[in-house]
Amino acid sequence: MEAILNAGVGEAVAVVEPQDALAEAALGLAPGARRMSDLQEMMALDLDGVVIATPSAAHAAQSIQALQAGAAVFCQKPLGRSGPEVRAVVEAARRADRLLAVDLSYRFTEAGQRLQSLVRDGALGPIHAVDLTFHNAYGPDKPWFHDRALSGGGCVMDLGVHLIDLALWMLDGVVVTQVASSLFAKGRPLGPNSPDCEDFALATLTLDTGAVVRLACSWNLPAGQEAVIDASIYGARGGGALRNLGGSFYDFQAERFTGTTRETLSSPPDDWSGRAAVVWARRLGQDRSFEPEVESLIPVAEVIDRIYDPAT
User: In percent, how much of the chain has pLDDT > 90?
Assistant: First the structure.
């Protein structure tokens, strides 16, 4: 909300928030907004768009409800807890002809944009390997994250979704043909579709091009710093990477690798937090019709389904 208001691309007119302290904080940012009891009451206002930032179990149903009422939607990730949930929301957006976007925010970092340009421009040559890492030394502090029925999964759903999306976005048009994975909870291996939420995961994705994507993500890993975030990509003519600096969740650097040399493509500061929402709101101000690019969220969700159950 704060990013959209500060950018001057939207006006907040209504807030639904069950916790008084959080509602007061939101209304402090938008003193002219009204606090409402639920989404149904909010939709009676005939809004242009709705931002959904509720627990993951509610995302798909609330997004569909808003879209069917005629509003565009910007939703926190994940859009759904499974491939079928995500597909249902995208299809609802298409039927309603309304703009839909999800806060997969690493696409909107300067480092992510520069790395994507290297790949799309062919500067690295044909890509054969991608390494993705996201270790969070803390893990989520809200109990619902650890309830698979509410969250849809553990660190893969929470953190891995960002990097899987980043890789498939950069490699535009690839198809994942094989998935192998190992999931753990407090060091204990988990079987397919375990009711427990994993706190450590390793996965290997084989693409139709023959390229291989390796993913590692975790909660509460003793990583020696607050976070380790890395998306490294290698081609026949060079490599590149997006990496966090000093354990930060917010400061990223993009580099290009040629042999034993490296070139810095972008460095902090980069005020990217909230940028995805601002881009959505700016588009909404021009045209709130369906954008087909949102269909790219479906294969990301289907890959996550296969990480949880490779037989899917």
Answer: 98
**Domain assignment of residue 40, given as a range:** 2-103+274-293
> What is the pTM for the complete model shown?
0.95
156 shares a domain with 288? no
| Inside any domain, residue 307 | no
Say what the pLDDT of residue 312 is: 78
Mark out the alpha helices in the chain (DSSP H runs).
2-7, 20-29, 39-43, 56-68, 83-96, 110-120, 148-151, 155, 161-170, 275-286, 297-308
The pair of three-digit structure tokens given for residue 179, joined into one six-digit string: 């998935």
What is the number of structural domains in the chain?
2
301 lies in a domain? no
Mean residue pLDDT of the chain comes to 96
**How many Cβ atoms from other residues are within 10 Å of residue 174's Cβ?**
17
- pLDDT above 90 (res 124): yes
In a domain? residue 196: yes
